[in-house]
């Protein structure tokens, strides 16, 4: 997979993408990540990328030309790839695991990170997706893009050490994950549940499912609206 990140602050990505899972994916050539500073396409002596809004109002807007030219540069470098161009925008569709799964199936992702008050509206004609990290406003799209890159890259085949773990992640199954335990069997008076120690895999699976369901019901009941509950599930959470 190829990922281009269009930003005024490319150095922000050095740390987060240079560690752990994403670093491993880059080293294994599973993903190729580039940053492009669109300041280079800024206008005039000061390479201006923003300007005041027509009609008046507070704040500055990103001008269209630098972002159009950044996309032109990416297209001419990669004429053959079909691109998903993703605009970081607090007014976009909220990012979730399903979107990360969808992105992980693409060949080429382009993240556009804005700053300032907003975008000239014509910039939206460049993009396939407008995505928000959540219902809060960040100082720029960079942190949002980092989160989306991380959540996407870990889903690429051969990135996670244990491929099964992506399928059992909280959110990918539609439920939150069940509790986990490792050694010791007892710590400060807190015991590992007996069911996990007896080697009966049928019972263990049943316990895990019930714990996932209870945890989701208590913490994130909204998630159950999209989950296909069995009669047994319904009985469990109505107790
Ligand atoms: N830029 C500023 N806030 C943002 C958010 N919540 N999501 C994506 N991009 C943003």
UniProtKB/TrEMBL annotation:
Molecular function GO terms recorded = tRNA (guanine(37)-N1)-methyltransferase activity
Which positions are annotated as binding S-adenosyl-L-methionine?
114, 133-138
Q: For this protein, what reaction is catalysed?
A: guanosine(37) in tRNA + S-adenosyl-L-methionine = N(1)-methylguanosine(37) in tRNA + S-adenosyl-L-homocysteine + H(+)
The main enzyme category here is: transferase
Enumerate the Gene Ontology biological process terms.
Answer: tRNA N1-guanine methylation
Q: InterPro entries under this entry? A: Alpha/beta_knot_MTases, tRNA_m1G_MeTrfase_C_sf, tRNA_m1G_MeTrfase_TrmD, tRNA_m1G_MTases_N, tRNA_MeTrfase_TRMD/TRM10
Q: Domain tRNA methyltransferase TRMD/TRM10-type: where?
A: 1-225
Q: Which SUPFAM superfamilies match?
A: alpha/beta knot
Q: What is its EC number?
A: 2.1.1.228
Task: Output this protein's name.
Answer: tRNA (guanine-N(1)-)-methyltransferase
Q: What is the lineage of its organism?
A: Bacteria, Bacillati, Bacillota, Bacilli, Lactobacillales
Instruction: State the encoding gene.
Output: trmD
């Amino acid at each position: 997979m190829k990922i281009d990140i269009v930003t005024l602050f490319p150095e922000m990505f050095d740390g987060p993408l240079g560690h752990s899972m994403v670093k491993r994916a880059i080293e294994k050539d599973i993903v190729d990540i580039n940053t492009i500073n669109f300041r280079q396409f800024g206008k005039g002596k000061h390479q201006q990328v923003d300007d005041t809004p027509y009609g008046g109002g507070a704040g500055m807007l990103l001008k269209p030309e630098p972002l159009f030219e950044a996309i032109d540069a990416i297209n001419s470098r990669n004429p053959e790839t079909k691109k998903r161009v993703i605009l970081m925008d607090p007014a976009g569709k909220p990012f979730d695991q399903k979107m990360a799964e969808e992105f992980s199936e693409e060949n080429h992702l382009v993240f556009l990170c804005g700053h300032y008050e907003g975008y000239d509206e014509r910039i939206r004609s460049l993009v396939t997706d407008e995505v928000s990290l959540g219902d809060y406003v960040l100082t720029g799209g960079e942190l949002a893009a980092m989160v989306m890159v991380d959540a996407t890259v870990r889903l690429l085949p051969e990135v996670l050490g244990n491929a099964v773990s992506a399928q059992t992640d909280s959110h990918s199954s539609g439920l939150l994950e069940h509790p986990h335990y490792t050694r010791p069997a007892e710590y400060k008076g807190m015991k590992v549940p007996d069911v996990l120690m007896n080697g009966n895999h049928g019972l263990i699976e049943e316990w895990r499912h019930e714990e996932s369901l209870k945890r989701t019901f208590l913490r994130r009941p909204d998630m159950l609206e999209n989950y296909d509950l069995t009669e047994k599930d319904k009985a469990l959470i109505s107790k």
